[in-house]
Each structure stands twice: as structure tokens, then as C-alpha cells.
Amino acid sequence: MILPIVAYGDPVLRKKAKPITKDYPELDTLIENMRETMYGAYGVGLAAPQIGLPIRLFLVDTEPFSEDEEFSETEQEELKNFQRVFINAEILEEEGDEWAFNEGCLSIPDVREDVFRQPKITIKYQDENFKSHTEVFDGLIARVVQHEYDHIEGVLFTDKLSTLKKRLIKGKLTNISKGKIKVDYKMRFPAMKKKR
After folding, report:
1. N or C: which end of the chain has fewer CB within 10 A?
2. Which residues of the chain fall below pLDDT 70?
3. Active site residue: 78, 103, 113, 148, which one?
């Protein structure tokens, strides 16, 4: 089932998400619905806060990037086959010189900006079967994981922009939070404040 994606301005996107246990109700269904929602919106990642749940769960599937010719054949192959569920993730280390890449977010449609991130991460997480993993990712995979990980920490990619860039996109962000935007996927906009 495709779920509505929560738009910029909703307080759930600013909450530090809570860990979950293997008895979380209907977790398999939730993961399947999140996957369907992510693909329906042509995303490469989706975090639970983006569907209104402040829990430490996100999915990543970098296959759409595998067609991009700016990457080597080896990188394209890695991107094509990278699909993961991350539960209770914790980034242990970020390494290397920061590099810029143009990022967007399903919760912030029509806003794309260059974001600087470190190229290599070590992350500890559990998969959908609650098996524990500690893995090292680099390049674009690391970046997508970092972006989704930020969501479970209550951080958005726009927080990483310069003051000037933030000022330049302020109007767009206000319009998104008010629902004054057209998107081709289901969205849920923050409740409008009633005037007295």
C-alpha cells in the first residue's frame, strides 16, 4: 500500500526517532508499504519519519543511480545491487574529505542543492530479520545512507546548506509546508495554523 509522504514543516521530521524491537507490530507489512511508497515516488531511500512514524527504520535502494554514466562500471554494478533495510542504525564513524553532490528529498519536492558529506562511513544496524551488521560504505551508497540516517536523527538535507542558500529557498520551503506544490505522489502536508 502506498502511504502519503510527510511534507517539510511537519514536526515528525524534526524528532529524533526511537529504536524498535522485533515485536514491533506488523513490521513486515510496514517495510513492504515503505518500499512500495519509495518506488511509487521514484525515491532511492525512505525513512519512517517521512511516513509519519518517529522510529529508527529506513530503506535504501540505489539501483536508479546505476544507469548514471558518471560512475564507473564497477560503481554502477554496486549501485544496481544495493538494497537494504536499516533498523536501529547508528553511524559509528564518518571519514574522508567532504565532497558535494546534488541532493533532493521526497519530503521537500522540487528543491535540489549541493550538500557536502564525508565519503566513507561505518554503520551499525539490524536488518529486517533483526540480524546485527557493522558495515563500511563509501561513495554514493554512503551518501544515500547518510541522507536517510539524518531523517531518523531529525535532520534534513536543507539544514546542511549555507545561510545564503537557506535564505534563497525559504519561499519554496514555506510553499511546501502550506501544500502549495504539485507532486505526482501522495503527500501529507502539515496542518495549517488557524487564524483567530
Report:
1. C
2. 191-196
3. 148
- The CATH class of 5-188 is alpha beta
Each domain of the chain, given as residue ranges in start order, spans: 5-188
CB 46 within 8 A of CB 150: no
| Catalytic status, residue 63 | no
Cβ 5 vs Cβ 37: under 8 Å:
yes
Q: What is the pLDDT at residue 195? A: 44
Cα 49 to Cα 152: distance, rounded to the nearest angstrom: 7
Give residue for cell 546534488.
102
Tell me, what DSSP letter sits at residue 20? -
Enumerate residues 6+ apart whose C-beta is below 8 A from 130: 22, 87
Residue 181 C-alpha cell reads as: 506544490
